[in-house]
Amino acid sequence: MEIGTVVLIVVLILAVSFFIVGIRIVKQAEVMVIESLGRYSKTLTAGPNFIIPFYDKPREMEWKYARDVGGRNISYMGTVDRIDLRETVYDFPSQAVITKDNVSIQINALIYFQITDPKKAVYEVASLPTAIEKLTQTTLRNVIGELELDQTLISRETINTKLRTILDEASNKWGVKVNRVELQDITPPREIKEAMEKQMRAERDKRAAILEAEGLKQAQILKAEGFKESEIRKAEGERQRQILEADGIAQAKIRMAEGEKQSIALVADTVNAYSNPANYLIAIKYIEALQKMVDGKDNKLVYMPYEATGILGAVGAVKEIVSQHHKAQK
């Protein structure tokens, strides 16, 4: 084989090797930062890309990984030459935080972030995962330090929003967008937990007593209203009975008066036709009075008024009137 042919083959092999070594395949949602002789050159996006071997080199950066070992989530640091643009979640271990009222609590937080500028993420901070973790921890201490324990336990959403705002502003220069922060666990000291449990039991007992008293109160109110309604109905029935009774008595008196009126009118007409009506009425009244005077089992006395002859004359006149009336009817 000639020397020229050998050289050509070697050159072809070197060219193919050079081309193969220079090819970089970047996956979707990933980028690669390229440096040329130590200086930033370009950022490779998804798809096949070509770099000059030995001249261009990918810039590596630190990244945090998590692995499940024996049921425990173990975090460790590594290096990567490709930057993941998807949303990433970091689970930070529990840390001690002191509240405004000097209570030490353990808090475990999650942070969801996304790299928006790969160049800044590589060149603006030495270790992005470490910087995010430390920033989150210090910010969490500052935010919790402004709140008392009770506020911390009931204001998770407020704390999450405040943490996200502060972290997003601080990490913006690193090319990172913090989407949200979540507090997983807030663990107060054992004695505080026991006191809180006692307070919760007392509060539950208090609510139960209030509900029981309220139910008893409502039952008494309903009972009183029912008794009141019964008394009102009873009084209304009695009033209606009295009204009806009074109406009956009034109607009876009216009818008696009407009958007496008709009787007197009839007698008066008859007496007027045959004698003096005044003498007739006087005679009737005298007879009624004499009857009352002689009432009694052992009464042997008879009272005769001075005008007895006049009375008897009136009675005689009545007898005469009645006799004449009967004759006229015959």
What does it look like?
The chain is an alpha+beta fold and 330 residues long. It folds into three domains: 1-59, no CATH class; 60-188, Tetrahydropterin Synthase, Chain A (2-Layer Sandwich), CATH 3.30.479.30; 275-330, no CATH class. 58% of the residues lie in helices and 23% in strands. The protein contains eight helices and twelve strands. The chain has helices spanning 3-22, 118-123, 128-145, 149-154, 156-171, 190-274, 277-293, 308-329; strands at 23-26, 30-36, 39-44, 47-50, 56-58, 61-69, 72-80, 83-84, 88-91, 95-98, 104-115, 176-187. A hairpin with a 2-residue loop joins strand 2 and strand 3 (39-44).
What features would you highlight for this structure?
single chain; four-stranded antiparallel sheet; alpha+beta; about 25% strand; about 325 residues; 3 domains; Tetrahydropterin Synthase, Chain A
Q: How many distinct domains?
A: 3
- Percent of residues in β-strands: 15-25%
Helix share bin: 55-70%
Query: Would you identify the CATH H-level superfamily of the largest domain?
Result: Band 7 domain
Question: What is the class of the largest domain in the CATH system?
Answer: Alpha Beta
Shape descriptor: rod-shaped
Order of helices and strands: HEEEEEEEEEEEHHHHEHHH
Total DSSP helices: 8
Q: What name does the CATH topology of the largest domain carry?
A: Tetrahydropterin Synthase, Chain A
Oligomer: single chain
Give the structure's gist in a few sentences.
By secondary structure, the chain is α+β, with helices and mostly antiparallel strands.
